Amino acid sequence: MSIKKISEIQPESFEFSKDNLLKAESEIKKYPKDRKASALLALLYLVQKQNDHWIPLAAIKYVAKFLSVPYMQVYEVSTFYSMFNLSPVGKYFVQVCTTTPCMIRGSKKIVDICKKLISKNQYELSENKLCSWTEVECLGACVNAPMMQINQDYFEDLDENKTEEIIQTLLEDKLAKSGSAKNRKSAAPEKGKTTLVEVKNA
Ligand code: FES
Fold first, then answer.
1. How far apart are CA 124 and CA 41, in angstroms?
2. What is the pLDDT of residue 186?
3. Which ligand 1 atom lies nearest to the CA of residue 139?
4. Which residues contact 52 (CB under 8 A, 6 or more apart)?
5. Is residue 108's pLDDT more than 90?
6. 179: enclosing H helix or E strand
7. pTM: predicted TM-score of the whole model, two decimal places
8. Would you say the CB of residue 106 lies under 6 angstroms from ligand 1?
9. Contact 150, 166 (CB under 8 A)
């Protein structure tokens, strides 16, 4: 997206919803009064969640004022962490893990499906503006590789058919059921557990 286009989509103002305002205040209370800035990451996370997974410049200014810290300090943090998006990524943001275990188990095919169904390039919105995708490093679910994260949810044990089905659902403005495509519980063996069999909920 060109600089001109990014500036065109920036909203003029931002403020927390009632609910997030309460959450932000309770985050700040976790720290000493003269250390409010320690809540910065938590507040940026709230902004991103409220604003369809991206942080506009108006929100960076808002958070700086909220925490009484320089605008540049908030800007530096939001541009440092790749988890924060500074331009729109759509209502459904797909992050495909392409680190070694997922790569060995076929993440390239998942990336190809994203290119085919969502958009040719990473961070580019789909035609209906609902989704975008990107490659990311390990998301900590290697035992269930290959996997992808959509918004806050993990979709694991994927194959080509399942991935196509999930992405088609997104493009119809619906979120498929998250979890293992093989219906296994967390990272339990595919054919059922073999240890702690007598322990309920183990
Ligand atoms: S390598 Fe993909 S989740 Fe760890």
1. 25
2. 83
3. 3
4. 88, 89, 90, 91
5. yes
6. strand 179-180
7. 0.86
8. no
9. yes
